[in-house]
Structures are given as structure tokens and as C-alpha cells.
Amino acid sequence: FNNVESTLAGNFPVLRRLYGDEGWQALIHAFYRDHDCQTPLFTELAREFLRYLDARAGTDTGHDDPTWLRELAHYEWIELALQISEARNDEIAHDPHGDLLDGRPLVSPLAWPLAYAWPVHRIGPDYRPETQPEVPTLLMLRREADGTVSFHALTALSFRLLQRLDAEPALDGREHLLALAAEACAPDLDAFLRDGAAMLAQMHAEGTILGTRLD
Q1: I need a labelling partner for 162 at 20 to 30 A (CA). Which of 148, 156, 204, 212 fits?
Q2: 158 contacts: CB under 8 Å, gap ≥ 6
Q3: Is the pLDDT of residue 57 over 70?
Q4: Interval 67-84 mean pLDDT
Q5: How far apart are CA 177 and CA 181, in angstroms?
Q6: Distance of CA 68 to CAs 24, 74, 75, 121, 160, Å?
């Protein structure tokens, strides 16, 4: 039990502080007692804990849990998931110097855009929101070359662009930007394309976009 508790405390440090000593021990005891883990691997223990929180939310046991609890837990877990991901930047053939407008931009498999209903990156012992914001929290996690995970806030436009690049890989960069302009009802198409091209270039410079697809 102590190994399980200490591992989860390391995986979910904000949750650990929010619950305090007594509450955290009770939560992990309940998980240890009630959850039927699907794998014995310690690297998967945090994912099993997420599954437990999902199941707990639908029972009387979890009726006192904050509404944002599962999103916060997912946010804390996703860092570990990205750290141990076996994805590699060279697994898809690409040209790192390709034209991002005429070519098909490739998003790094180690750059994960995320959308949450709650401001999970701000929640902690001193901030426990009671009302869900009208605007979602859009974030991106990216694993850097040295293995560290960096966190970035996204605008609605940059989040949607990353969504489109992943969902429709057959389109080139210009086609994606034109589609985005139509979605946004952009009044000045030329200005939108200029700004969009700059956004693609910035994403490429920081490693979110690797280049253009060759397949």
C-alpha cells in the first residue's frame, strides 16, 4: 500500500495537496480496496487511478468530489503519459525544411493539444473554482529533446489549427488556413493568411510542427 500511495502522490502532487494527509490516505485506501486494476504495471498505476475516479464519480462514494476533480487528475496524469510515450518524431517521413503553406504540415506526435472545461493549470490549495468558466482552457504539452515536458497556453485559433492538422493530414497548410478563415468568418482574408503563416512558422520553430509530410 505504501508503494502505491507514494507512487500516486508523485503522479498527482496537486491532488495530494488538495486532499491533505487524512483525505489523501482515505482516497488511496478506497482506490486500493475498490478498484479492479486491469494491469499490474506500476507505469500504468496512474491511468488505473483515473479509471477509478471516473467510476467513483457515478457513485454515492464520490458525491463530495469537486466537479473539476477528474479533469485536474487527467491534467496531472497526461504529463506522465507524455514522458513515457514511445512515440518518436522520426516515425513519420517528413521534410524538416518543407514549405508549410504549399506542403502538408506534420504535427509532432510528442505535442499534445488539450481542452478542459476547467482551468486545471491554476487549480490548487489556494484556488478551488466553484463556477465553470464560459471559455474552455486550451493547453498544449510537448516533450522536448531532453525529455522534459513543457506546458503552453493555446489560443482558440492555434488549438483549432492543431486539431485540423491532425484530423485532415491530406490538406496543405494554405488549405487549412483557408478553412479556418471560413470558420472564423475572417473579414480580411489576406491578413488572416499572413497571420496564419506566421503561426505555422512559430509552431515549426518551437518544435510543435516538425516540417511537411513526405508520404
Answers
A1: 148
A2: 138, 199, 203
A3: yes
A4: 93
A5: 6
A6: 17, 10, 11, 11, 23
